[in-house]
Amino acid sequence: MPTEATRELDADEAQPQGEAYLRIDSLWKAFGEFIALRDISLSISEGEFVCFLGPSGCGKTTLLRAIAGLDIQSRGSIEQAGKDISNLPPAERDFGIVFQSYALFPNLTIEKNISFGLENAGLSKAAISARVTELLELVGLPDQGKKYPAQLSGGQQQRIALARAIAMSPGLLLLDEPLSALDAKVRVHLRHEVKELQRKLGITTIMVTHDQEEALSMADRIVVMNHGVIEQIGTPTDIYREPATLFVADFIGEMNKLMAIAGGPGMVTIGQKDFNSGGGDFPPGSEVIAAVRPEDIIPHGPGARSDGAPDDITEPGNAFETTIKEMEFLGSFWRARLVSAALGDAELIADFSINAVRRMQLSVNMDIVIEIPSNRLKVFTRPAGE
Amino acid sequence: MLQLKKLALTAIAGLFVANSVAAAELTVYTAVEAEDLKRYAEEFNKAHPDIKINWVRDSTGIITAKLLAEKNNPQADVIWGLAATSLLLMKSEGMLEPYAPKGVENLDKKFIDKSTPPTWTGMDAWVASVCFNTVEAEKLGLKAPKTWKDLTKPEYKGHVIMPNPNSSGTGFLDVSSWLQMFGEEGGWQYMDALHENIARYTHSGSKPCKLAAAGEIPIGVSFAFRGAKSKADGAPLEIIVPEEGVGWDMEATAIVAGTDNLDAAKTLVDWSITKEANEMYNTGYAVVAYPGVAKPVKFFPDNLLEKMIDNDFEFAANNRKAILEEWQKRYDSKSEAKS
Amino acid sequence: MSVTTPDSLPNERPVKLKLGRDDLMMRGFILVIALYLIITLAFPLYAMLSKAFSTFQFDLSQIEFQVSDESGKFDGTILSAAALNEQLNAIPEDEMATSSDGRLSLTPLFPDFSFRSPVLYKIRGTTEDVVYLIGSDRVSGTDWREVDSNTFRRIVLRPVQSFGLSNFTTYFSTPSLFRSIENSLFISIVSTIVTVSLAFAFAYALSRSCMRLKGVFRLIAMAPILVPSLLPGIALVYLFGIQGMLKEGMMGESIYGPYGIVLGSIFFTFPHAFIIITTALAISDARLYEAAVSLRASPWKTFWTVTIPGARYGLISAAFVVFNLVITDFGLPKVIGGQYNMLAVDIYKQVIGQQNFEMGAVVSVVLLMPAFIAFAVDRQVQKKQVALLSARSVVFEPNPDRKFDRICFTYCSLVAIFIVGILGVCQFAALIKFWPYDLSLSLKNYNFDVMDGGGWEAYGNSIKLGLLTAFFGTIVVFIGAYMVDKTRSFRAGRGLFQFLAMLPMAIPGMVLGLAYIFFFNDPNNPLNAIYGTMAILVIVTITHFYTVSHLTAVTALKQMDGEFESVASSLKQPFYKLFTRVTVPVCMPAILDIAIYLFVNAMTTVSAVVFLYSTDTALASIAVLNMDDAGDVAPAAAMGMMIFYTNAAARIIHLAVSKGILKRTQAWRLR
Ligand SMILES: Nc1ncnc2c1ncn2[C@@H]1O[C@H](COP(=O)(O)OP(=O)(O)O)[C@@H](O)[C@H]1O
Ligand SMILES: [Mg+2]
Fold first, then answer.
1. B22-125+249-298 domain in CATH 3.40.190.10?
2. Residues lying with their CB under 5 A of ligand 2, a single-atom ion
């Protein structure tokens, strides 16, 4: 499943450059006996757009609320712009926030909603009015100011919530699932706009989402969380291409997970076949899981290459014969279910481009040779019970 | 210098005191009928315009409960118009200021507390009677009873209502008068028999008469004053004074011990026993404390005075609890069996 | 990565929240309102409990005698009363326990006593604080007093105060008092069964049929809420009393007693049961009915397998609410109970009739038991019902069915006639000159000023009480609910507050009122000054009706977005700006509901205020009670109907104001 996020980015974007704007150190949060966040450490640099990504209930909102001071952490410290804000009440911190529910004040007009925070900041009436107009233009709703929130669509309300959050030019913008209450179409559209706005304003932004596409398409960096711990921090490409854990590999994008046994250095055995793999130092003989993304599986055979060049197998050791069991057209590509005697009873999912399918005339029950590039074959410890 | 300061302070204090005397306010607790209160205050203020009365009025039981509840923190300055039996309770709690009002010697001795100086003085008497609805009785073929003993006759079964002595002063005065007239044993025997005829016991003392007036019951044991009023309202009532004699209580006046306004309180109590005051009481009550004042009251039975028993208030007060307990044991639980 | 993380919080010092200005202010508010509830609820109840355990005992060791011979000479022998009694056992141990009003005659200690005898007696106390009476004169101290035999007869000993359980022993060994428990339970259970059945049928007819006049029926069903609970008692006297218009209907039975109490209870508890059951029926799922129909289940079977189980929590809840209302009600049994003793009336009788405050407190404690149990069960059921409610269901839309609709219509008409009839009879009685002898119309029964109860001033006071209660009560309740809902952390404070806010529901009004006497009338209490003022009436009424108001406020607040506070603080705005600009306007309908609820209840309550009003603050509802008590039944009915019209008018104004405000401030609700 190739997405636009697979664009290459500089590797050094994975770590913040220079002095961190927000630094979280060994942060814990417990609700009674239940520990919602464990030992979270994280730095975010100024102007960065960071997404907290993870399944529902993993602690993303809890972390965001700790940063905002809405639910204070049990242990650990938070520093913003060089200042220790660990135990400050929200009103003494510097952030704007947008919730999934928008939390627009229903009885105030759009204008009053946006100016709610501006009113006693020492601004003149005219200045406030000018700022409101400016913000409304910024979010693309210049003449909706006199309406009430209920008279706007969900997407419009979301933009107003955004305008209200940035009205006082906070140093940090916090977004908690801002788009998940919207229709799919609107959502995709708004992703763009929010990202644009953030880029324009250069405001450091943290967005919580459980939608990987959203995270991959918007974030400069993604913090993948699970069960209250950070699984991986990295650029979207990193996260996608080099998942650090099985969880990340599994959670983001599609992934074939195959039972395997570690061989020598860089070697892994799936079924009866040995493969070269992209690293992972496991004692030989230990039980592991080998993982490969469907779109990384390369088909070989007549017509495999679009330029008509000879179809060379780059790593013959990682190629083997399979049978196509099933094919499914998914719009922009074909998804095939493959079985191979070499792999035992394991099945493989592979995504082939429409062109490749046409050129190679792939069809069900056809036998083809496929190759798994060694640097795309990831090996992870096998969790107990699998 | 210091001397001067003291002087100034005293002067200021004096000013305040003088002021408060000039316009004294008295909190007066009373159980006098609501419609009479305004008149009482007006009459009093004719003589003493400088003293303002703040009435706290309620039924006898409630005012008594209130006074006892406030025992350690009295709110009242004067009690004007509360049953003597209640005042005896206050007296035994040491709540009343002994004081012989000017001219107390003019009153009928019956109406003065036995202690010297007396702690309370009576105003008027409040006499038990039987209210008999002639219309309803005729429908039922009942003859008018002449004596208390008549009321125990089988023909009256279910046609008599009396107040519950546990909640009504009138009820208690009936019971204590029977015990005094018929002796302890005879009294209870009488009540046993009467109980067989009682339809129910009411909470308040005036209600039996009002019920009789409204025809809810032909015979209501109540007090004469109430009966006369209902009769004046047009009820077909006959007010019967049973021949054996009738119990009575008096409305009385006393100063509450510890009052801040002792002088004003004394002024009020002095006035409350004057001839004028007694004439005022006479508009509602046929029997008043000042001999020779009373004129007959409309609709009041004329033989009332002679039938009043020689009431032993002390007996009533000191045995009240025991009597009520006995009464409750005998009738309150037994009567349940009916329903 | 995750493998290396430890399993429990590191052993460092927990992060301590630095409290912002908002936090401090909100906590301050919680504490202030909690303090208010402690002072107006917890302390008085404590005072009452300790009163129940405050006992009075005769202590014979306090008294010593000397007895002369026939010629009046004393030989100097000092006799202790305690020792004498030990020898003779003249006064048994169980007669030593008494009440504050107890008096003990001392003559039984001298078997050959005669009041005619020339023997003289000397008596003294063993300590300075011993109190005995000679006649009704109070004597204390250790000086010898010499009296003749006739005076000695008049000497009685006063009891001393101590603490113990003897009040309870006395209570449970007094058959008539103990019988009250049985009676109260019996009446409450019967009334509960009848009311809940009737209300269920009524609510069922309204929600499941397509009959006409549903709105009218609904309105009529709610009417009894607007009058004091004792008003139906008065109407029943006019209907079924000896001179009643329908006296034949009683077939010789007396309306004064269980019949009257049950009938009246049905009247005044009907709307409460009706509201609860209507809600329960409204949330039952229409899909279940469709399923039942498609399974060809008979209507009868559908009723028992779908309707009843669906409404079961509502039915249980209604049953407990009705039970609680009946067992704690005092006005109705007082008016129509006749000889039939009930607990709530016993409290009144003990306190007002006998001035036995200790026994009043004991009965209060007894009355608290069933009320507490009913309360606890109801809370449990309510929780379950809420859970049921949140599982979204489809609303049932009834289909016309001629026969069924006609049955429903007939039934509802009968109930409506009962309710309207009761009110109509009261109004009629109020206008008759002298029932049954002079049936001409007259307004003389409205001349309240010449009657017991406080006159027109009492009516004015009631309105004042209603307005003050509505005003201050709404403010206190709503702010309290807001703070407890929105304050960050502060678990202990919020928990305490929640508990205090729920407690009033379990406290019968009589008990609360009595507790107030004990607490506020204590001269050592600095708040003593409010005793006997309008302030104490306002306070007791707010406290008495706190729980329902609080729940209304909490429900409204819960429906608001929980993140408003977070947004406001991120915008650096204080919570009170959010509160005034957003919370209050958005919750205005609920706020008005609380206000009218408090107003109506302040107008009708009798039990909470009956011990606390003073002459200056007499109330209309109390006037109804007292006028009826004094036998002025027609004026009592007249005053009762004045309360009805006032409340009805208040409701109409409330409706109009709500609509107006909604239109103005809640334009945002309309899309
Ligand atoms: N106030 C709370 N009390 C108890 N548990 C909570 C509370 N808030 C969140 N949790 C728990 O903490 C975990 C993380 O919640 P949250 O941060 O909201 O997850 P998400 O990643 O979906 O935003 C969940 O298991 C949730 O049930
Ligand atoms: Mg979340």
1. yes
2. A 61
